[in-house]
Amino acid sequence: MRKDSTHYRDEELGAALRELDVPEHRPGFHAELHRRLAEESRGTADVPKRTWRARSTRRRWGVRVAAVAAVAAVVLAAIGIPRLDRTSPITGSEVATAAAIKAKVQAALADMDNLSGVLVYDGTEKGDERRWRFTLSAAGDFLLVGPTKGETITYDASTGVVRSAQRSASLGGGPLFYAERTGVALGPPDLGAPTWMIPDDFAAFVRALLAAEDPRVREVVYQGRPAWQLDIDVVPNAIVPQDSADHLRITVDRETGIPVRVLETNDGAFWRELRIEDPAVNTDLPPDTFRLEFPPDADVLRSDDGFRRVPLSDVAGFVGYAPLVPAWVPEGYELAEVAVAREADPTGVEAANPPSRMVVSLSYRRGLDQFLVTTRLAVPSENLWGDPLATGEGFVDRGAELTIDRGALAGEQAELVAVPRGIPHVWALTDELVVTVGGDLSRAELTRVTDSLTRR
Amino acid sequence: MTASALQPAADIDAAVLERAKRGDQEAFAAVIKHYDPGLRALAYRLLGDADRMDDALQEAYVKAFRSLSSFRGESRLGTWLYRIVYNACLDELGRARRVVQLPLEEAAEPPDGRPDFAEAVADRSELAAALQELTPEERAAVILVDAQGFDYRGAGKVLGVPEGTIASRLNRARARVRRALGEQGARRVGR
Questions:
Q1: What is the pLDDT of residue A42?
Q2: Given CB 3.0 to 4.6 Å as the disulfide criterion, which of A264, A427, B5, B35 pairs with A271?
């Protein structure tokens, strides 16, 4: 739960702002709007076709997401593998398929202890390029430095503490603002560490890559190394399609099968590029790598998200119900962390779900792979519960309804969602709980983990 | 308008929303009417001009109508609309840089004869002027959080940034507004 520091509202200023006048619409505004809406309605004849095609494509991807899936960290992780010796290369004239690449990525991730490199973002405008130096660990820690001097974010997974020194983006610089978040959640659907730049974007690309049934593959040379170039059509954002890519070109290191560059285009025009430079895997990291020290006189904005790391045996006493624990997990996965919160921010698209109460979050890790099992009370509310892990505005997830066969949730209805831009997951709403199982799991693994949930 | 409840307390009725999603113009008009005061306030504070406000809102509302069928019911409709309007305003601001400005004498009288609201209210002009000194992103943050009651996370959803960024924008914006107003202005704000 956050303290006032992130809920503070300047009531005095707010009252004054509300006193400022706002003009009514100009004469004819509503008539003009009605006319334009009528034109839109008349022009909808083509819309169903477009919608159908888009959905069809997404379903096809969803089917393929299967084994892989992808994960946020995947991406990053993936990218750094050039020096990873444990991953056997795909060599010779072997046909490059999405399945082969997927297996390559998975093997690398499962074996990785840490990954470092430079993430480079470039957009359509001159000066858009930004660079971050990053380090990720298999425990979930991360370090992000940049894009300007002095800006740093660290996350210590063992303590659940995020520390940051950042400048105001809106000012294009200015002084550093220092902040510390404690009690940070283990991850989605609860607000975890702020790694949106790396995991969210890159994970989306990896998912798209892995989910595409028949990406067009070409052999190329990228930065002097043999690589594959895959072309994938994606569904643009429904709200602002002009501000969203409709095509991805992903360059994958051929020796390791790892994505090293993603080029997004919209209607054939450059839209955005993300790439990883100078990747390094399993390097020796100083013990304080993931802890940012503030200057002694820093004015630090402190907040507490309310999550506490506890032994599994203490969970029931904390939340008042027996936690749901999978009796089966894919090979290599181990229970890494358990966290509980009496209250947490609402989940779902636009955080529109009812309040999260008595939350239990179990994190399972396998190298840089992670999946989470979460439960929270299905508190009655005016708002209906929606998918806590829905992709978000502008992207419409199409899940598959299923009935859970076995385990503590036997007979309950659930939805399995595996779409390129979202975290593969299952969610269910029971009379008592809202349950999610989500992360780097295939469709079959998601189902099996869910079926194995037992009261512990 | 002195709206104390610019941000509606609740989302639109589900049945109306469902009709609107199916392309019912009257239902969509009801949706817009529900949120229009707050959206208008945001657009006007960002753009500082009544005509540009209306232009941006026209574009935003048409875009919302076009996209509403893909809007999921459990989402917070207001946040979704605010984001569309905010983006439309940014587009409008960007477009302004490419538009040749009219000479002052031609621009002095708005086409419909409406007064410049900020100037017409003399005792609030300092606050309005101070707001204009902020970047659009900062202005949007204070309007959403301080004036319209969004929490940091919701404002972050509208503006497309993490809530930590909202916090830093708010700190900066509040400080700059109060500095611009000075002690006398600050007392006026508190009036």
A1: 67
A2: A264
| Pick from B32, B66, B147: CB nearest A14 | B147
CATH number among 1.10.3720.10, 1.10.10.10, 3.40.50.1970, 3.30.230.10, domain B120-191:
1.10.10.10
In a domain, A60, yes or no: no
Q: Judge: B167–A194 Cβ closer than 8 Å, yes or no.
A: no
| pLDDT class of A77 with cuts at 50, 70, 90 | very low
Claim to verify: residue A242 and residue A138 sit in the same structural domain: yes
For chains A and B, what is the number of CB pairs under 8 angstroms?
208
Q: What is the pLDDT of residues A122-180, one digit of tens each?
A: 877 777 788 889 888 888 888 989 888 888 999 998 888 999 887 754 344 567 888 88
Residue range B11-114 in CATH 1.10.3720.10 = no
Closest chain B CA to residue A243: B87
Q: What is the DSSP string of B73-94?
A: TTS-HHHHHHHHHHHHHHHHHH
pTM as predicted: 0.55
Together in a domain, A79 and A160: yes
Answer yes or no: do A262 and A135 share one domain: yes
B17 touches chain A (CB under 8 A): no
Backbone angles phi, psi at B167, to 5 degrees: -60, -45
Would you state the pLDDT for residue B117? 32
The pLDDT tens digits for A8-56 are 888 888 888 888 888 888 888 888 888 888 877 765 423 322 222 222 2
Alpha-carbon distance A298 to A412, whole Å?
51
B76 touches chain A (CB under 8 A): yes
Q: How far is residue B84's CA from residue B67's CA, in Å, rounded to a whole number?
A: 10
- Chain A contacts of B46, Cβ < 8 Å? none
Interface confidence, given as ipTM, is 0.78
Q: Which domain holds residue A200?
A: 67-281
Radius of gyration of chain A (CA): 23
Looking at residue A406, its pLDDT comes to 94
Assess whether A323 and A412 both reside in one domain.
Answer: yes
| Average pLDDT value for chain A | 76
Residue carrying structure tokens 């419409």 = A396
Tokens of A396: 């419409």
Hey, what are B11's tokens?
Answer: 């989302």
Question: What residue ranges do the domains of chain B occupy?
Answer: 11-114, 120-191
pLDDT at B43: 94
pLDDT confidence of residue A62: 22
Task: Count the domains in chain A.
Answer: 2
A32 within some domain: no
Is A11 within the bounds of a domain? no
Q: What is the pLDDT of residue A409?
A: 96
Does residue A216 register a pLDDT over 80? no
